[in-house]
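haha ok so turns out i had the wrong file open the whole time. this is the CORRECT one, sorry everyone. sequence first:
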Amino acid sequence: MPEITFIKDNDTIEVKLNEAGSVTFNVKNKQETPVSGAVVIFNGLSQTTDALGSTTFTLVNAGQAYPYAVTREKYYAGYGILDLKGGTNTRDITLYSDGTPINKTIVKTVKAIFPNPASENIHIVSEEPILTVEIFSVRGSKVYQKTFDTKTISVPLSELKDGEYVLRVTTSKGQESHKIIVKH
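then structure:
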């Protein structure tokens, strides 16, 4: 958004435009292998890395600090703050394995999450008892956490602002993450 400053008289206006920049995230693992399919959350947007482990965000206001989060199944999440300069920026991120064996079969136990988009409550149905539900903002902040021990739950959304969130459900079989949308 342009910054407008009035000078000595009403006929002279100085306009300062914020310099735009772009940032490319290159995501790799400890062995320097690109990590495709990683979700990068930056400046309120979410993008997925390509086969080369990269994704680029463009037209971002330079001169500001932006938090970011990088997640991928079987890896610990990466977080940080990027001081964006004008022009092209690059951030190399290394994700570390969470110890989940590569050949382990992923068992999905969550059978339904509805409605999505949701306004008041979101309902979760699972084959296994749900132990914990966490909700994260697109900036990576945890905005909700509660423990349960039942297969069907209802999570209130009245405290959340409109937008996209990541819902993480933990059962005895592991964790699953799902994107949800809140619209009041």
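Residues 15-95 form a domain with the Immunoglobulin-like fold (CATH 2.60.40.1120).
again sry for the mixup
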